[in-house]
From TrEMBL:
One of its GO terms (cellular component) is DNA polymerase III complex. GO terms for biological process: DNA-templated DNA replication. InterPro entries: DNA_Rep/Repair_Clamp_Loader (IPR050238), P-loop_NTPase (IPR027417). This is DNA polymerase III subunit delta. It comes from the Bacteria. It holds the Pfam family DNA_pol3_delta2.
Length: 346
C-alpha cells in the first residue's frame, strides 16, 4: 500500500499519487478526525520530493530529496500547522512579532494570519530542487477568517510549480472559495473491524476498549499517552469517584484524588463518562465505557436525561479548557461536587 500503512487510506493514497505528474494548484484532503489524514498529507508531500519513488508513490528514503524532507530541511517544502498541532507533531512554530510567550495561556488551535504572511518570501522565490514546491496546511478547517482571505489570495495567484496541500477534518468549515479552487480528495473512515485489526497489529492492549474510549477513531487510540490516558491505578480511583454519584463527599474526594490526576488526563475520562451517562439515562447503551454499563444504569435511575445532558455540556467545557494552567485539585473538587448534584439523594 502506498504512502501510509493504514488500509482504509489506500484509495485516497492512490488518488493523490495519480496526481504527482500533473499537480493541481491546490489539493484538499478531507475526512474524519483521528483517521490519519495529516499523516497521509505529510507522507504524500514528502514523497513528491523523492527522486526515485516506487510506482505506488512510496519514497525510496535514500535520495537527497528524501534525506532533506526527513530532516525537515527541504528548501521547497513548508508546513503551516496551528500552534497546538505544531506541539502535537513536533513541528517548529513561528510566533507573531507582537506575541509575548509569557502571556500565553493556551495553545491556539487555529491557523493565524501571520502564519500565512510569513510565507511571502517562500512564495516569491523559485524552487531550489527540481522545480516543485509544496505547502502543507493543517487543519485547513480551522483557518481564521483573515488568514483564509490571505490564503485565498495566494491560491488565486499561484506561483509556477507551487501546490497547496490542505488537510481538513470538517469540510463545511473550509471557506467555499477555497474549496472551489482545490481538487477534493475524500478519505473514508475505517470500519470498526479495520480499526481493531490495526490497533491489534500495533500491540494495543484491550483494543476494543481503547477504540471505544477514543470515540471510534484509531489514531487517538494508538497515540494515547500519559496526558490523555490515566495510569490504571489512577483511572480505577477516578472511576470509583464517578460511580459514587450522589454519595460523593468532600472527604472521599480529597482522599481519593491522586497527584497525577491532571486536567487534560481526567477531562477526557470525565467527558466519556458524562456522555455515556446521558445515553444510558435516555435508554441507550453506553458507547465509550461499555464495561461500566451496570454502574451507569444504577446512576441513570437517580437523574433525568435533561440533568445528564446538562452535565455532559459542562464536561465538554472542562475538556475545552484543559490546556489552561489551572490548579488541578481545585478544578476536580469543584467538578465532582457539581457532578454529585446531578443526582437525587437516596
Amino acid at each position: 500500500m502506498a504512502l501510509v500503512p493504514y488500509s482504509w487510506l489506500e484509495k485516497p493514497a492512490e488518488a493523490l499519487n495519480a496526481m504527482r505528474d500533473r499537480m493541481p494548484n491546490a489539493i484538499l484532503l478531507y475526512g474524519a478526525p483521528g483517521t490519519g489524514l495529516y499523516e497521509l498529507g505529510l507522507a504524500f508531500s514528502k514523497s513528491l520530493f523523492c527522486e526515485h519513488p516506487a510506482a505506488d508513490g512510496t519514497p525510496c528514503g535514500k535520495c537527497r530529496g528524501c534525506q532533506l524532507t526527513h530532516a525537515g530541511t527541504h528548501p521547497d517544502f513548508r508546513q503551516v500547522l496551528s500552534e497546538f498541532m505544531c506541539a502535537e507533531w513536533d513541528v517548529p512554530y513561528t510566533a507573531a512579532d507582537n506575541e509575548r510567550p509569557e502571556a500565553k495561556k493556551k495553545l491556539s488551535r487555529e491557523i493565524r494570519i501571520h502564519q500565512i504572511r510569513v510565507l511571502s518570501d517562500f512564495l516569491s522565490l523559485n524552487a531550489n530542487q527540481g522545480g516543485r514546491r509544496i505547502i502543507l496546511v493543517y487543519p485547513a478547517d480551522k483557518v481564521r477568517a483573515e488568514a483564509a482571505a490571505s490564503l485565498l489570495k495566494s491560491m488565486e495567484e499561484p506561483p509556477e510549480g507551487l501546490t497547496w496541500i490542505l488537510v481538513a477534518e470538517k469540510l463545511d468549515d473550509v471557506l467555499p472559495t477555497i474549496r472551489s479552487r482545490s481538487r477534493l480528495v475524500r478519505a473514508p473512515s475505517p470500519s470498526r473491524e479495520e480499526a481493531l485489526e490495526f490497533l491489534r497489529s500495533r500491540k494495543v492492549k484491550n483494543a476494543e476498549e481503547a477504540l471505544a474510549f477514543a470515540g471510534g477513531a484509531p489514531m487517538p487510540a494508538l497515540r494515547a499517552n500519559d496526558d490523555e490516558r490515566l495510569s490504571p491505578k489512577t483511572e480505577a480511583a477516578a472511576l470509583d469517584l464517578l460511580r459514587a454519584g450522589p454519595d460523593l463527599s468532600p472527604d472521599l474526594v480529597v482522599r481519593t484524588l491522586a497527584p497525577d490526576l491532571t486536567v487534560p488526563a481526567f477531562s477526557l475520562l470525565l467527558l466519556r463518562w458524562a456522555h455515556d451517562l446521558m445515553r444510558v439515562s435516555s435508554g441507550l447503551e453506553p458507547h465509550f465505557l461499555p464495561g461500566e454499563a451496570a454502574a451507569l444504569r444504577k446512576l441513570a435511575g437517580l437523574t433525568t436525561p435533561a440533568k445528564a445532558a446538562k452535565f455532559a455540556d459542562f464536561a465538554e467545557t472542562v475538556r475545552r479548557s484543559a490546556d489552561h494552567p489551572l490548579n488541578s485539585r481545585q478544578v476536580w473538587e469543584q467538578t465532582f461536587f457539581r457532578y454529585r448534584d446531578v443526582f437525587t439523594k437516596r
